Here is the input.
Amino acid sequence: MIGDMTDENWGTRRVARRNRRRAAIAVTAIVVSLAFGIGGRYLATDGIIADRPALLWASGLLLAGALLIGFLWREIDELQRRRLVNGAALAGVTCMALLVLIKAAGRLVPVADPMIDVMMIGAMVMVATIIVQRVRG
Amino acid sequence: MKNRLKVLRAERDWSQAELAGRLDVSRQAVNAIETGKHDPSLTLAFRIGRLFSLSIEEIFDDR
Here is the structure.
């Protein structure tokens, strides 16, 4: 790094290196998601994964997710962290409100298993919040 | 918060990416600070001051 810092454009190269590391984390996240998704289908019988493999699978997915978020957290700066936290906070509040609404609506219209839908909506809210913040500068 | 970051950067003929790299932040962060859309943390403000050899008050103005 010190050798690089004598160069006039070392800052630009540092940004490029950081972007490459972030891209590598993003690609890894996609590959891991696909691997867990496809692998999960092989474990399932009639759409249901047996209890123990399901638990191992879910634990592995959570561990991989936590590791990737940890790596990403180290690579992003304070502005990007704030945007991420804003997105996560809004997603959390949305999920809480949706769960209450679905629970109340469930008395009138039975809903089979709304948790996965609520999680997906939460994830979409988080991504949308991050994109809107980024577009607005 | 107003600041002189854009002027200081221009004086040194640095791009936003170059300044971002020297501060170890993203180019988006430099842009957001320059346009007043993001107030940097105290740590980053000190880093900016050290980079330009100026005090924080000489770069940022909260009035």
Remarks:
- Chain A has two domains: 1-76, 77-137.
- Residues 63 and 90 of chain A are 23 Å apart (CA to CA).
- The interface with chain B takes residues 9-15, 18, 76-80, 82, 134, 136-137 of chain A (CB under 8 Å).
